[in-house]
């Protein structure tokens, strides 16, 4: 397509399409212990020397905890009609269970009210990786009690905000929580234990089911799950590479979706984990069936996969596509993968409602000049992925909205502040906000195709 082809086709997205941006609590808020909040595993992890690049922490982050009004105004000026954010569990329940901290609830209630006043639909993620430290001390997600803790926490929020928040997400990226936190160890709490990771995954699925049930009991109608998905393309047509890609597809794309839709794990999980795979009973598996009202898709890239027995536990590794463009994270820019993965969901899981809950890219930004930041690569990434989303719409995918990752440059987990995904620049010294060219482009695209606000 030529540079001039519009981002969306003339048959623009359906009425009520959500045009949003996404963030998460620990990545933007700062002031993690303010007003009675308890510490989270990310607070501890970031304060452990050597865990995060440059030993960066979320102590200040984007200072959204004090600047949230300004940030809502920024969203309005971008023309967003939706905003996805997460709630910090330890602000609501400093010890993880039990005593509720009213100041924490008030923070999110004020935020939600300000969004609604601007006609911006809130999409609330209950868990985006910041488990209360007090619960980690009781075994964290490996504890058999964790689904109950989560459902109780969810119930508090349903009751506090259920009259104004329509769209709920239980967990953000259970795969990343499991693999990053408990298998590879690069994310909090930093464990490397295959057997434990399989149990954690199972408990996260139980937690999703339990929080969905408690939401139903409170009359909440739209409860989703946000998953990271990436097409797994075999590097060759050799049976080894095809099998490797199929294993990685089960591991990354189906480990969580198959259980919630079908009440079973992909057969390959047993192959991948071997003796570390627990023996789940039929009733345990059946209890995992909790089809979400919508699937939240976080899409960044695809993987081209080669068999490699040394790359455990999956026996597969990604092959870098050297001739293709890559982001600052070294992820291939591959917009067609977004269309492909949406069409895959449509076929495999019966065309459920879908939101793209994250899509975006880190690039090295130039310095702003005269109040303008020309982030051409991010703009091109955004444009090509909006087109990819529109192709999925044309193929009948029930796509209801698009959320750019991210509204703001923020704390990119183990990369600290080194990787910037924002449509809006946050000055590293004074935290001043500046809408980048990609943000202006997004605003124009919303105006043009959106229905917008
Ligand atoms: O900031 C995180 C973004 C950035 O890139 C966000 O908190 C997460 O929800 C999400 O995981 N995020 C993210 N994921 C990209 C993973 C891409 C992997 C593609 C290549 C495979 C190695």
Structure overview:
The protein is α/β, with parallel strands linked by helices and 453 residues long. It has 16 helices and 13 strands. The chain has helices at residues 25-28, 41-46, 64-78, 89-92, 102-117, 133-136, 146-161, 174-183, 194-217, 239-254, 257-262, 268-273, 282-286, 336-349, 376-394, 437-449, and strands at 18-22, 82-86, 121-127, 167-172, 222-228, 232-234, 294-299, 303-307, 316-318, 354-359, 399-405, 424-426, 433-435. It has an eight-stranded parallel beta barrel with strand order 1-2-3-4-5-7-10-11, surrounded by five helices. It starts with 17 loop residues before the first strand and ends with a helix. Ligand LGS is lined by residues 24, 27, 172-173, 176, 228, 230, 298, 300-301, 303, 331, 358, 405, 412, 421.
> How far from one another are the termini?
28 Å
Strand content: 5-15%
Instruction: Note the main sheet.
Output: 8 strands, parallel, barrel
Small molecules bound in the structure, each named once: ligand LGS
Number of strands: 13
Order of helices and strands: EHHHEHHEHHEHHEEHHHHEEEHEHEEEH
Q: Average pLDDT across residues?
A: 96
Strand order of the largest sheet: 1-2-3-4-5-7-10-11
Class of secondary structure makeup: alpha/beta
- The general outline is globular
Which residue ranges are poorly predicted, with pLDDT under 50 across at least 5 consecutive positions?
A: 1-6
- Share of helical residues: 25-40%
Gyration radius from CA atoms, angstroms = 21 Å
Count of alpha/pi helices: 16
């Amino acid at each position: 397509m030529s540079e001039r082809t519009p981002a969306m086709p003339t048959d623009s997205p359906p009425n009520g399409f959500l045009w949003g941006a996404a963030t998460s609590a620990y990545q933007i808020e700062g002031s993690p212990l303010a007003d009675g909040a308890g510490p989270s595993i990310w607070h501890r992890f970031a304060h452990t020397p050597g865990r995060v690049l440059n030993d960066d922490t979320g102590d200040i982050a984007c200072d959204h905890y004090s600047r949230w009004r300004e940030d809502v105004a920024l969203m309005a000026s971008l023309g967003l009609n939706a905003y996805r954010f997460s709630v910090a569990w330890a602000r609501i329940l400093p010890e993880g269970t039990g005593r509720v901290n009213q100041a924490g609830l008030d923070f999110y209630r004020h935020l939600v009210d300000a969004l609604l006043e601007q006609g911006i639909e809130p999409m609330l993620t209950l868990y985006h990786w910041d488990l209360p430290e007090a619960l980690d001390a009781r075994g964290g997600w490996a504890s058999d009690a964790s689904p109950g803790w989560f459902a109780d926490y969810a119930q508090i929020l349903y009751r506090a905000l259920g009259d104004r928040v329509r769209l709920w997400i239980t967990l953000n990226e259970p795969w990343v929580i499991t693999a990053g936190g408990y298998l590879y160890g690069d994310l909090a709490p930093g464990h490397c234990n295959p057997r434990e990771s399989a149990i954690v995954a199972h408990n996260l699925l139980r937690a999703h089911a339990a929080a969905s049930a408690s939401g139903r009991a409170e009359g909440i109608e739209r409860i989703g799950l946000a998953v990271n998905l990436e097409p797994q393309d075999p590097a060759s047509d050799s049976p080894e590479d095809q099998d490797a890609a199929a294993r990685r597809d089960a591991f990354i794309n189906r480990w969580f979706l198959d259980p919630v839709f079908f009440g079973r794990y992909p057969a390959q999980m047993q192959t991948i984990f071997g003796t570390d795979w627990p023996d789940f009973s039929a009733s345990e598996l059946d209890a995992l069936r909790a089809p979400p009202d919508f699937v939240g898709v976080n899409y960044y890239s695809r993987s081209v996969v080669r068999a490699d027995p040394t790359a455990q536990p999956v026996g597969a590794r990604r092959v870098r596509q050297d001739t293709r463009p890559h982001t600052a994270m070294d992820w291939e820019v591959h917009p067609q993968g977004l269309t492909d993965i949406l069409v895959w969901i449509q076929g495999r899981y019966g065309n459920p409602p879908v939101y793209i809950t994250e899509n975006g890219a880190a690039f090295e930004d130039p310095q702003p000049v005269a109040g303008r930041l020309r982030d051409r690569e991010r703009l091109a990434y955004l444009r090509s992925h909006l087109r990819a989303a529109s192709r999925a719409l044309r193929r009948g995918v029930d796509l209801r909205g698009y959320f750019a990752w991210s509204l703001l440059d923020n704390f990119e987990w183990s990369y600290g502040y080194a990787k910037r995904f924002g449509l809006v620049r946050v000055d590293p010294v004074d935290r001043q906000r500046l809408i980048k060219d990609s943000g202006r482009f997004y605003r124009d695209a919303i105006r043009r195709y959106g229905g917008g606000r």
